[in-house]
Amino acid sequence: MLGWQILIDGFAISSLYALGATGFTLIFGVTGVLNLSHGGLMVAAAVGAWAAGSYWGFGALASAAVGVGACLILALATYGLIVRRLQLTTKIREEEKEIFILTATLLWGIMIQEAIAYLFTNNAKTVLPIVEGVVELAGVRTPKNELFTALICWIAIAGLWLAVNRSRVGKILLAASMNPRGVTLLGVELSRVYLAVWVIYGALAGVAGVLLGMFLGVSSYSAGPLTASAFSIVVLGGLGSVSGSLIAAYVVGYLETLTAYLISPAYREIPALLLLVIVMYVRPRGLLGRR
Q1: Whole-model pTM?
Q2: How many helices (H) and strands (E) does the chain have?
Q3: Is 107 a domain residue?
Q4: Collapsed DSSP state (helix, strand, coil) of residue 249
Q5: What CATH number corresponds to the domain at position 72?
Q6: Which domain holds residue 192?
Q7: What does each of the 291 residues of the chain score in pLDDT, given as a tens digit?
Q8: Residue 267 lies in a domain
Q9: Could you tell me if residue 166 is inside a domain?
């Protein structure tokens, strides 16, 4: 019975991690930016959906749309007001811009976290679930919303895969991740490519944040751990590798679930961090990394 519980819960949380890490990896793979405000954006999506349902009386679907929209707006603000300005400035040497962007996005994420705490308190928020009720699987009573969460995550990931591999825009994104200069020589404006990537990222992070709010609930304190989890997953899977991030998400998700059930929820993040340290020594590029 416990084994089935771990299997089901681990699959749901791993699917959430996979969706969040996919957007994080996509941003780095195409633009070379590690966005350390990632957790803050996901929390903003969840809190936005919660506020829409609690304060304005929106239904579950409308609340979810508000949450995704809030995350998308913040993602575009992250790109337009912080990342893009630092990339274009002539006051910072090119070799120093990466560390400035890392620091700026980290501080931006802290600002989002503190703004959420100020406006909505630090208390945990649970988003109104779209699917209610429970179902019995292998003798385990499982909330339907948990299964719905995993399903939506994989629909979003599959949709991203189809868009990248079957559409003209997707092929341009792939080309930009491999050879940005070659793309510009073909007459494609890189700034538009980067903007498109941030739009996709904002939508993915928003969906992941809202689903997390429905599944586990979030508070402003969740921003840091969510960024750390996403960063650990993409490093473990290999920076820039979406397939590596998917594999790593399930490794981390199941490690955390096993630790929470068999030892204590307080220690759930420790085994994944230890694994990350080992992988960094044995294979610094990660499982499927190309950089």
Answers
A1: 0.90
A2: 12, 2
A3: yes
A4: helix
A5: 1.10.3470
A6: 2-282
A7: 778 888 888 898 999 999 988 888 888 888 888 899 999 999 999 999 999 998 888 999 999 999 999 999 999 999 999 999 998 888 888 888 889 999 999 999 999 999 999 998 888 899 988 888 888 777 778 888 888 999 999 999 998 888 877 777 777 877 777 777 777 776 777 888 889 899 999 999 999 999 999 988 899 888 888 888 888 888 888 777 778 888 889 988 898 888 888 888 877 778 877 887 888 788 777 777 655
A8: yes
A9: yes
